[in-house]
Amino acid sequence: MIMMPGQVEQFESILENVAIGVAILDAENFHIHYANSYLCALLGEPFAPLTVAGCQVEDVLPASVCKAALPLFHYVATTGRRVNYTEVPYEGFLEARGKTYWHVSIEARQAISSSSPAPEAGEIETLLVFVEDVTDAVRSRLHLNAIHSISAAIATGAALPQVLDRILQAMQDMVGSKRCAVFLIEQSLAESEARLPGYEDVLRSPEERVRLARLAAQKGVHTCSYDWLPIVDEHVLLGRVEQAGHALIIADTSQEPEIELPFLIHEGKPSRPGSALCVPIFEPPSHARASYSRRRAENGGGEKSILLGSIEVYHRRARSFPAEEVALLEQFAQQAGLAIQTARLFRSIDRYARVASRNAHQKENVMQAIPDGVVIFDPRWRVADVNHAARKLFGWPDDILGTPVARALAVSRASFSIDFASLPDLAEQLEQRALDEIIEELKCVSAEGRACALRVSYAPIRDELGDLFAFIVIYHDVTSEAMERERIEAEVVARTAELAQRNRALQVAKEEQELSHARMALLLDRMPSGVLLVEAGDNAVTLINGKATHILQSLGVAFAPPHYNATAMPYVHDLNSEMLLRQASLYGPNGALMPYEEQPLYRALVRGEASEAELHSTRTNGDLLYLLVNAAPLRSSDGSVVSAILVLHEISKMKALERTREDFFTTMAHELKTPLANIRAHLSALLVHDLQWSSEEQYAFVQTADEQVERLVRMINQFLDASRVEAGALRLELEPILVPELLEDLQDRLEALISSSGRRLQVQLPPDLPAVRGDYELIMSVLTNLLSNAFRYAPPGDLIQLDIGLIYEAQGRRLNAIQFKVTDRGPGMTREQQTKLFTRFSTFAALSRPDSERPGQPTQERSRSGGRWSPATGLGLYISRGIIEAHGSTLVLKSRPGQGASFSFTLPIFNRRRGQGSRKHAQER
Question: What CATH number has the domain spanning 361-477?
Fold first, then answer.
């Protein structure tokens, strides 16, 4: 593909700013044509985009990468097929970033010949190589997988060693560490895990206990270190990391020989690590709060996190650890601490269950000591056990054990608000209550005749295997609570109406306040000016609208996010306004840089003065930005300044309009001066007494002066028409217009232009055209202007087309309007030029006039014979658009650079009844 120099520079500019590596290789010999800065930064310090270009791939890439890449380059170059690899691991940046992952894509690009637009197969010229860093995404996924793996082990009730093995496996998956270990502080283990042979004398009491570091899990550690139990002090990494409170890196262990480290496996022999990374594992906050009081003395009384152990990573050689890897392991250590505590909690729960089983023989004493009535039924709902409170409640005899529930209730002297004895299938209903663990409140008269309220709860009892072997029903006396509740309920009922009335009033007030707040927020957001509210004490921004955020970012003020959107405003809140405004270079009307101390906001906050200033600066895209800045102080009751309001009103368009207006009037003054000077010169020549002119020469002078006067009249009429269009006061004399007669008159008026320009006009119109409704002279002026522009910009000898088309309604049956379309094949216009073409004070018309020396342009003699053709004043299209819009239509422009332009508009079909009404309306206007 052949690109122009400007396109190449634009292409390189885009590639230099993308966040991926891009390289272009020769498909035949794999020479590097281009590599962007991002890719060269990955290659190392000696390489730069200019030095890489022209090199062989083998001279740039490492040997390991070349070994894998060259076959792929050859495959793509021979087959033309794209190869795409995701999450390719790479260990070339271990020192800086650790193990990284990359997305690599190789594509073939075929050569495009000027003589053969469709290349044949095999004409592959270059290879495009794209390299994207996906390390963060892969590490996030591996981190999430590690959490899932550990959570699954905890959910299945796995023991602590299994959880630790999964932690190390997850570390290997995330950072690729082959030699790692988990150390746990012996003192922090459960009681059943803390008693080790030979250390009973050390672990006598908390005050005398010496904390030991136990190698709880390992990978790549030599067997000679399995029984290593060092004391947690400054000679081991666990002791040092506890004092530091964060991860520690020992890049070269030979520089610190006093540190004791486990031995690694190297060729079957133990060897001391060359470097080590120690990441602390702290107890989770919830566990730390629960055991804080118990361990405060052991931690010296300080309020610091409790250390459970550490995750350590080793390398045989001396090397550093990348910050990304350290941050990832620190984050993972939090999940590891939670997993370790959870595994220990499961171990404790199991131990407590065994203790409860051993103490089951004390059930009877516990049952009798419970003040609530407790009845235990077997699976067939026969009374298995009853405590003293339940016997007293029901009045049951001592031989009630073994009695079915229906009979037991029948012999009871107590009565309930629910007659259980009369319920069908009583055992099934009670069992369903127990399985659903229902809690209900019943009114009751006890066997002693005391009226009371009972809260009855039903629950099943299951064994260790989950099999149901009994049911328990508990009767809790809540008489006092029920009486108190009834009293409270009565008060609640009494005050409900009052609260409801107050709530309705508060709701109405809240809705009004929310509506007022929403209106103010909408007003602030829709304001065309930027508004900031700044506190006087700390210069903090407490309120800002979207327009102010947009203006600040246009001035280059940096805050997140870097591009303006709806989420940018919260990032500005509480920022220092002085810090923000000092980032922008603001200039006064005289062009001098205005210091922050002279700007309106500073004067309002510090001096308490309300002021206004017209400032300007440069946008980030290089355009000028003009601002009208107002600031006023807001005072408290004592008169001190508490805050200030800053209003930023962008007046760039107004300034541009003023400059354009000045340029316009300067141009118009020049345009008016030229015919006046011409008239004066001819009249002065006639007034000279010393010269004798023939009658033909005098007539020529007067005719020339008359043409210049007519030119002045047309220019003045154009100014007046432009003013009427802008004021919306254009008067229309609507009448039926016969299109063929209009076109015939148009050709007569443009005859001089057509004959002098060297171009041809072709008119196409369908037969039997109906009359249209419009102002004859104004429509004639629009067509004259459009055709004059077409003749002016069309190539010499070319054809200008005027097409008349029929416009039907949506159903396609009834003729609705007539379309007029003027088309030329001139140079065309860009989208930016089209936006400026119809503006009143646009300089595009003057700047885009054809050169007078351009071939095919009419000479002065020919121009003089064309009475209605004159140089452009820049108002023709503006007035034409106003005329067409006054007719209820639209002047439509379609153009592309190098493809000419077409202007079209429609006029409605004349309807006699509608035409009379329109004429009356035009006269009223």
Answer: 3.30.450.20
